[in-house]
Amino acid sequence: MDYGREVEFGVFPEPSAEKLPEALSMAQIADREGLELVGIQDHPYQRRHLDTWALMGAVLAGTQRVRVFPDVANLPLRAPAVMAKTAASLDLLSGGRFELGLGAGSFWEAVAAMGGSRRSPGEAYGALREAVEVLRLMWSDERSVRYEGKHYRLAGVKPGPRPAHPIPVWLGVGGPRTLALCGRVADGWLPSSPWAPPEKLPELNARIDEAAAGAGREPGAVRRLYNVFGIITDGPSEGFLRGPAEQWVAELTELALVHGMDGFVFGPADDPVRQTHRFAAEVVPAVRRAVAQERIRRTTR
């Protein structure tokens, strides 16, 4: 399934305090060399990690054109009304370059150790559904908003300031209920290749598409951004996304044209700065050409 959306590319730097120069270099390479996205994981309980939201501000300040997003925001440790305020602020400060990836939560022992709520699967789903509604209320033009949910409550809060652009909400989810929620209400889906390998994508995409259609939406309205982890080598293939640039081009092109994935966020397995250069120079332009050529061929045959 090809939803026909323009394919975008990005990088996934590690938010390690010890590797800050590396993370900033990856973002700057993406900015200079034609990539569109920088996604940063959000695990506040990781003692070696910087705060993701502070780091995103630094990345936005040090770049000019890439869009930056949490990949994905840790909802159990981030109140959605405050998250909305921070997101709108970063969007305004960067001239409309902030997007929002959002997850229901995981690593519950670590979340609870930091004072967050330990949620059952049902509670995590309910909180995620409510959070999307709260975020959008907080970005609205309303003079004041109220919301009465099981997990979140707004009692006449005044939204604002408004973001510089309509911030999309991309959900990093994989369960049946959360995939259906993604199809009904989200702007995008943000899976990762380790837990959503290519052979699983048809089933997972189908759940999103069915829910979208049931809600009166076009399935193509939901972006499909894929966190891809591997390494570009000079030798023979060692498996999926572990091989020469030509293999990467073939595999990402197939993911776009057959599985409908229209964004690829690259997490290098080793030597991240050099790998980011190679991805931008050897893989991305070739995938763009291959996808565009096949789409033209399909429309003219």
TrEMBL record:
Coiled coil ranges: none
Gene Ontology BP annotations: alkanesulfonate catabolic process
InterPro entries associated with the record: Luciferase-like_dom, Luciferase-like_sf, SsuD_RutA_monooxygenase
Domain of life: Bacteria
Gene Ontology molecular function terms on file: alkanesulfonate monooxygenase activity
Record key words, sorted: Flavoprotein, FMN, Monooxygenase, Oxidoreductase
Pfam families: Bac_luciferase (PF00296)
Residue ranges constituting the Luciferase-like domain according to the UniProt record: 14-237
Signal peptide (from-to): none
Name of this chain's protein: Luciferase-like monooxygenase
UniProt lineage: Bacteria, Bacillati, Actinomycetota, Actinomycetes, Kitasatosporales
